[in-house]
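Quick log. Single chain, no ligands specified.
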Amino acid sequence: MDRKILGSSEEKNNSFEKIYAVVRQIPRGTVATYGQIAALAGNRRWSRVVGFALHVNPDPDGIPCYRVVNRSGEVSSAFAFGGGNRQIELLENDGIPCPGGRVDLQKYQWKKFADTAF
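-> predicted structure:
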């Protein structure tokens, strides 16, 4: 973890909790991007931190990290709970098609954005 982004472990835990709180809000049938989650959690530069937090997700059933994709709509090849194919499976179970491992962000991106982020 980059110390310039997050200093102490207490600061990291607080940041992860902010990220998890946002991810819990992503509605079924939609996805969000790492950058979008970062901005909604309070720091638009936390995209990588979002990735770290989701990789160590303590509650996969309650924190739907599979609904987070990159800025191009691509699923993660290193998805923490079973690889990219598992993320595709979970998204498709939510009603989100993923042809070629990519989500159509125009159609499926969660429409919530931080007021000052974009």
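The domain at 9-108 is CATH 1.10.10.10 (Arc Repressor Mutant, subunit A).
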